[in-house]
Amino acid sequence: MGKVIAYSILLVLGMVGSQLAPRLFADAEALGTFEYVRQWLTFICLAFIMIHVGYEFDIDKRRKGQYGKDFAIAMTAATFPWLLVAGYFVVVMGEPGAASSWSVWKEELLVACFAAPTSAGVLFSMLAAAGLATTWLFKKARILAIFDDIGTILLLIPLKMFIVGLQWQLGVVVLIMVGLLLLAWFKLHAFKISISWPFVVGYSIALVAASEGLYILSKWVDPNATIHIEILLPAFVLGCVIALPRRSDGSVDHTHHEGKSSEALVGTIISGLFLFLVGLSLPHLDKIQAAQIGAGVVGAEVGVSEPIAINWMTVGLHVLAVTFLSNLGKMFPAFCYKREASFKTRLALAIGMWPRGEVGAGILVVALSYGIAGETVLVAVISLALNLVLTGVFIVLVKRLIKGEPQ
User: Fold this and answer.
1) Which residue from 27, 127, 232, 330 has the fewest beta carbons nearer than 10 Å?
2) Could you write out the DSSP letters of every residue in 283-334?
3) Which residues pair with 191 in a beta bridge?
């Protein structure tokens, strides 16, 4: 568990750094450069992790129905937290009559989407650090977390349409995602290329460069409607199509790196760096409060430049409620897979889906970029931070639940 503790410390240090950065980089241009480099490094580390996840991912094409079931369960793990949190934002935190206003709902649905995605990178790094990489729980969590994140990305497309209108760029994103998934299905472990860590780092950099290059090109064409492919999916697909060494019986040999200390060391370093960068990607509270003041909300009357102090006690209670609801929404998998695992193991699986991270933070950044401001954004950011802090606790709880259970 020493690695889990170390990773948890790195997460917290990154979160502290995210709030100190605006003070360390007083110049706006320097802060922008720092954020850009941080984003690239985060994407590269995530791509490295997801390539490894992909090339250890096997699909039994005779069990299409099982994967359909997994996807449906993963979608509940994405949509239930999203809808519960959105409902709380509108009904509990909204103004009287807000529940009947579509303009309010569409904004809060986007903000609440931060609660939908399990952080696949954070989850896999932490479970592996806890020594659970060979368990049924890890294998099932790997499938659900990937489907969960893909589902969240799909959810974002109509949400963006509600905010900015119907645009052809969103259709391009859907086509690319479908094409990548079909490639993974039909060319699973078909291409023989090197999988040593220097090459995987190179693949990661190339994928991030391609993704960001497409985004920059689309921004040049139309600044108001861009094409942005989350790096999680192309990196995972690349890992899926890489051919792995096979045993004499034809099965994939997932132990080909065992005993190679350099591979294990680099993997540990990159996972640790990724978790630090996830913490560092948390939106700055100063930026959120500035957006709120500009919008004339949260303690400030419209048109008044000096806001009344935020009631942090109330905000804290909302954070606890939203955090509870967002994790409650992840519990449905505990009631599935009754033929495959005990209830304690299934409960551990559901709790294992609680960690949030870079995807949730990215959604909040998207919400801010659309000018959405309000107390709900502040609560969402602090709730995300609280969930990040508790990630190590979640993993310890998972390990204790499955202790002594059949694996």
Assistant:
1) 27
2) PPHHHHHHHHHHHT-SS--TT-SSPPPP-HHHHHHHHHHHHHHHHHTT-GGG
3) 242
Dump pLDDT digits (tens) for 137-153.
988 998 898 888 888 87
Q: Is residue 406 part of a domain?
A: no
Is residue 255 pLDDT above 80, yes or no?
no
* Residue 274: both structure tokens together: 């990724």
Interhelix angle 232-241/197-221, nearest 10 degrees: 140
CA–CA dist 38, 126 (Å, integer): 21
| Alpha carbons 63 and 384: distance in angstroms, whole number | 36
Q: Is 91 domain-assigned?
A: yes
* Residue ranges making up the domain that contains 328: 2-401
Contact residues for 145 (Cβ-Cβ < 8 A; gap 6+): 74, 118, 119, 120, 123, 124, 353
C-alpha span between 257 and 128 (Å, rounded): 15
- Alpha carbons within 13 A on the beta-carbon side of 379: 31
Amino acid 264: pLDDT: 78
- Residue 297: predicted pLDDT: 46
pLDDT of residue 200: 93
Which tokens is 205 given?
């950099």
Task: Give the residue among 185, 205, 223 at the shortest CA–CA distance from 44.
Answer: 205
Going by pLDDT thresholds of 50, 70 and 90, the confidence category of residue 250 is low
CATH of the domain at 154: 1.20.1530.20
CA distance 64 to 52: 23
pLDDT of residue 183: 93
Q: Is residue 407 part of a domain?
A: no
Residue 301 has pLDDT above 50, yes or no: no
Q: State how many domains the chain has.
A: 1
Residue 282's φ and ψ, nearest 5 degrees, are: -60, 130
